[in-house]
Design goal:
- The structure is a single chain.
- The protein has 273 residues and is α/β, with parallel strands linked by helices.
- It has one domain: Aldolase class I (TIM Barrel, Alpha-Beta Barrel).
- Helix content is 50%, strand content 15%.
- It contains eleven helices and eight strands.
- The chain has an eight-stranded parallel β-barrel, surrounded by ten helices.
- Strand 7, helix 9 and strand 8 form a beta-alpha-beta unit.
- The protein is globular and about 60 Å long.
- It starts with 5 loop residues before the first helix and ends with a helix.
- Bound molecules: glyceraldehyde-3-phosphate and zinc ion.
- The site of zinc ion has 4 residues, from loops.
- The site of glyceraldehyde-3-phosphate (G3H) has 16 residues, from strand 3, strand 8 and helix 10.
- Its cofactor is Zn(2+).
Length: 273
């Protein structure tokens, strides 16, 4: 029961947090935080995290094992996959969902590449998210001005068969300050036009108040990475400053992990309405 497909915990009209893990400490902290909040959660690994490890297998299998041992529903998702090969590997490992990110391609190429991924994933019962409108910041260049056009988004969903759509509504990836200005009117129009759950990327740049408003306006899956890394790093830094002679990684990584878990629990109470 605890490892579930993403489609099982994404309910239109209700917020669902999706947290990015980089290493094992993130994985266990995300599950611990969700259990403390008694909330379902999406545990996701990005293509960049896979590049960091050099392979999907070790960290992917760890995430799946942690999900299976959890006492709350946990979905394991591949985030921002840029290659169909990585998608196929995640499907074989047992991931319940993937995000295929061809958002930097011209519209027609994005449709063609995404449709092929959807056909493969749906044959295996795997849920697919794609992106239209290109949320900025992945390359370090913030572009909060990007916007997804509702009519084009509806056409894209119909042409590809995706189960959820990431849209550009004012966020940018990897913001260190939580002062993004969301286009709530556009979120409402996308919700009314698109017909599948909407995904907010770059949610670390959004204040608690606006995260809650975004869910009320129509966003469903709320992706958060940088905010957790800020808390994890602060926990490690604080521990090392207070214990300059410590050399056992379990001490300082454990301090980071505890802080990350507390932030997951806190954010779930903001997002899961
Ligand atoms: O796909 C992951 C997210 O969009 C995370 O973005 O690091 O700005 O929270 P963030
Ligand atoms: Zn993202």
């Amino acid at each position: 029961m605890p490892l579930v497909g993403t489609g099982r915990i994404i309910e239109p009209g209700r917020g669902c947090a999706a947290f990015n893990a980089i290493q094992l400490e993130h994985v266990t902290a995300i599950v611990d935080g969700a259990q403390a909040a008694n909330s379902p959660v999406v545990l996701q690994l990005s293509h960049n995290a896979v590049r960091y490890h050099g392979a999907l297998g070790p960290i992917g299998l760890a995430a799946l094992a942690a999900a299976r041992a959890a006492t709350v529903p946990v979905a394991v998702h591949l985030d921002h996959a840029e290659s169909p090969e990585l998608v196929r590997e995640a499907v074989e490992l047992g991931f319940g969902s993937v995000m295929f990110d061809a958002s930097s391609l011209p519209y027609a190429d994005n449709v063609r590449a995404t449709r092929e991924v959807v056909e493969h994933c749906h044959r295996h019962g795997v849920w697919v998210e794609a992106e239209l409108g290109e949320v900025g910041g992945k390359d370090g260049v913030h572009a909060p001005g990007a916007r997804t056009d509702p009519a084009e988004a509806a056409e894209f969903v119909a042409a590809t068969g995706v189960d959820a759509l990431a849209v550009a509504v004012g966020t940018s990836h990897a913001m260190l300050t939580r002062d993004a200005r969301l286009d709530f009117d556009l979120i409402g129009r996308l919700r009314d036009t698109v017909g599948v759950p909407l995904v907010l990327h770059g949610s670390s740049g959004v204040s608690d108040t606006d995260l809650a408003k975004a869910v009320s306006a129509g966003m469903t899956k709320i992706n958060i990475a940088t905010q957790l890394n800020k808390e994890f790093t602060a926990g490690v830094r604080d521990y090392c400053e207070r214990h300059p002679d410590v050399v056992d990684p379990r001490k300082y990584l454990g301090a980071g992990r505890d802080r990350l878990a507390a932030e997951v629990e806190r954010l779930l109470s903001v997002i899961r309405q």
